[in-house]
User: What shape does this take?
Amino acid sequence: MNVKIIGVGKLKEKYLKDGIAEYAKRLQKFAKFEVIEVPDEKAPEQLSQAQMDQVMAKEGERIISKIKDKEYVFALSIKGKERSSEELAAEIDKLALRGDSDLTFVIGGSLGLAPEVIARANTQISFGRFTLPHQLMRLVLTEQIYRAFMINQGSPYHK
Assistant: This one.
């Protein structure tokens, strides 16, 4: 199985990089795992709706350029369906059994995901109504992907 996270922006904080690296190392026994960073679009602090749409569109183009046709895409969105860890594990297991072995999780920038990215996604997933920095979300998501594999393996990691 191949699992990929596409995130907007560069991860700067060492503690987040270290956490992601730890879970990426653990994931190696289950899947090929990679994180792809696409540049965020520089924009002034105060934006009109048209400018926000333009920023999201440019980031969206960068994201979509990293997604292959055969990939099953989870778009992280506050409007997505909330799942428990067990539900995500079951969904990943079901996809693997169905032959969908290329999973891609997409985390947008500070303005969210472009409509084109949402349209390309096979499903939307939400981690709740909290607003989290997208860099922190990468760590949380990586841990949850690892947890899903551990659940599917029947490991006591998930209690």
Q: What stands out?
A: The first strand starts at residue 2 and ends at 8. Residues 134-153 form the longest helix (20 residues). Helices lie at 14-27, 49-64, 85-98, 115-120, 134-153.
